[in-house]
Design goal:
About 40% of the residues lie in helices and about 30% in strands. With about 550 residues, the protein is α+β, with helices and mostly antiparallel strands. The protein is elongated and about 105 Å long.
Length: about 550
């Protein structure tokens, strides 16, 4: 008689109450559904549900689903379980172990494999809390699930009473924060790598001229250990007659003016070194002065006159460039997140997706920059393979179809030894630079000549190439506006450009990476130019 008094909830759409179940389950389920229906009638923005499953079975169904839940997935209660299941792309749970909070992420394939295990874990704990990444009708959003899990052992049935909360804004903000952390970490790693792996001496001093750090090259150059150099006055290594001039140069740097000068320095054993020093102020707290010291040996002096990297304004231009790009991209991330929050309040998912897409594009661009920085800082030798010259250069004919690209290869040359993954982008960057130079010309032609060259003892190239052996000589010639003589020596400096900043494309590292790629091939690159007539890039690599 008592069982007959348990009336079905209003508009009941589930299964269990139509089956032969215990009185305990029937009364409990009716009570839970009635309570959730009362909340739903208050029109609160809650996504309420009661799900159920049988022990050891994969199938889940809903005994109750609030209007907000059904409307969100445009589904009736009968199909809601399969629609929701198919829409889940990932599941995140937050596990507190002692004082550490760890995030566990399962993608869809893993969820399908571990569904019974995950369900058993929630049954044992009596509570479920997870965040689901949902993709439904080309919209991506996040739902936080908080549920009480109640097993009915006699019926071999478990029910879950829960609420879903839209946490899309919070998850997007969290992802943006993680990307920003990666950006900052990459920035630190790049600058540290440039400092430690530079081929030249790098010394950091405070504004009083006390040395606070140096790289290993500086230790070898001055024949001191780092501990011996720390806290020494930078001026103590400069010849007495040149110290006053050097101090004045430092004062100019304090006025935010980068300085390049030539000095004679003293080593620990009192030997003199003729060096070129680039000095730049780093606006940290406290202020730091960074000196980039390059020996002026005969070979370096020749290289300084003929190629851009001999005056590699690495520290100042790179620091400025990194900050410029990272700050711009972070601005995009933060700005678009603000827009995302505004659009979310309007519940316009399409607009939110567009904003998130812009964030992803900005992050991808930043990843490209960091990759190129790492490539730029790596001048170690690489593994080379024998590649057919003709097929290698014919790729560029197909790529630059809007140009007249003329390629002439010496008859006796068939193959050369390169690493195509490194060398191909280098040649591409040179051609791209030449194509920009002739963009406004009536006759858009670039000539590429490949020939062989033997370096002899009395050759002028011996000082540049260092080895007496056979080389492949690659000339890339355009008939553009040419390069001013003062700019040729800076062609390969990072972020150097004669174009306005607003018109620059790419990362600003193209020609810098060309220099690195050629050096990795034990080669050499130089530039010849006549204003308003032509520019010629000449690359030498061992045959």
């Amino acid at each position: 008689m008592e069982e007959k008094k348990t009336a079905l909830p209003k508009d009941y759409e589930g299964r269990l109450l139509f089956q032969d179940i215990s009185l305990d389950l029937k009364k409990s389920l009716c009570s839970y559904i009635n309570r959730l229906q009362s909340i739903n009638e208050l029109l609160v923005p809650a996504i309420l549900y009661i799900s159920a499953w049988k022990d050891g079975k994969n199938e889940i169904w809903y005994e109750y689903a609030g209007d907000n839940f059904k409307d969100l997935f445009s589904s009736d209660i009968k199909n809601l379980s399969s629609v929701f299941k198919n829409s889940v792309k990932a599941r995140k749970t937050y596990v507190q172990k002692e004082s550490n909070l760890t995030i566990q992420t399962q993608d869809k394939p893993l969820l399908l494999k571990k569904i019974l295990k995950l369900r058993n874990e929630t049954e044992n704990s009596g509570f479920n809390e997870a965040v689901y990444k949902i993709e439904y009708r080309n919209n991506i959003f996040w739902l936080k699930d908080q549920a009480r899990v109640i097993p009915f052992t006699k019926d071999k049935v478990t029910i879950s009473i829960g609420n879903l909360t839209n946490v899309t804004k919070e998850m997007e903000a969290d992802e943006a924060r993680k990307k920003a952390e990666i950006i900052l970490k990459n920035k630190e790693e790049i600058l540290t790598s440039l400092f430690n792996n530079s081929y030249d001496s790098v010394i950091l001093t405070d504004i009083e001229g006390n040395i606070i750090d140096c790289n290993e090259v500086a230790e070898r150059t001055f024949n001191y250990t780092k501990n011996e150099l720390i806290n020494k006055k930078y001026y103590s290594f400069i010849l007495p007659q040149e110290r006053k001039t050097s101090i004045n140069k430092i004062k100019e740097v304090m006025g935010k003016k980068n300085i390049r000068t030539e000095l004679t320095l003293l080593t620990k054993d009192k030997k003199t070194l003729e060096v070129e020093v680039s000095i730049v102020r780093i606006d940290s707290n406290p202020l730091v002065i960074q000196s980039f010291i390059r020996k002026n040996s005969e070979k370096i002096a020749l290289e300084k006159e003929k190629i851009a990297t001999s005056k590699f304004k690495l520290v100042s231009t790179m620091a400025t460039g990194i900050s410029h790009d990272i700050n711009n991209i972070l601005s995009i991330i933060h700005g678009n997140l603000s827009l995302a929050a505004m659009e979310a309040s309007k519940n316009n998912n399409e607009n939110i997706l567009k904003i998130i897409e812009r964030i992803n594009k900005a992050s991808s661009h930043l990843e490209l920059i960091t990759k190129k920085f790492f490539s730029f800082s790596d001048t170690s030798l690489i593994i080379k393979n024998s590649i057919e010259i003709k097929s290698f250069f014919n790729k560029y004919v197909d790529k630059y179809k809007d140009l007249t690209l003329t390629i002439k290869i010496a008859d006796n040359l068939k193959y050369f030894r390169i690493n195509p993954l490194i060398f191909e982008p280098a040649i591409d960057a040179i051609i791209e630079n030449s194509s920009e130079a002739i963009a406004n010309s009536k006759h858009k032609e670039i000539k590429i000549k490949i020939s062989d060259l033997t370096i002899k003892e009395d050759s002028d190239l011996k000082e540049k190439l260092f080895k007496e052996e056979n080389y492949i000589k690659i000339e890339i010639i355009d008939s553009g506006k040419g390069i001013k003589p003062d700019n040729i020596s800076r062609m390969f400096d990072p972020y150097f450009s004669t174009k306005p900043l607003s018109s620059k494309k790419g990362t600003g590292l193209g020609l810098s990476n060309v220099y690195t790629a050629i050096k990795q091939h034990e080669g050499y690159i130089e530039v010849e130019s006549k204003e308003n007539i032509m520019t010629k890039f000449i690359v030498y690599i061992p045959e």
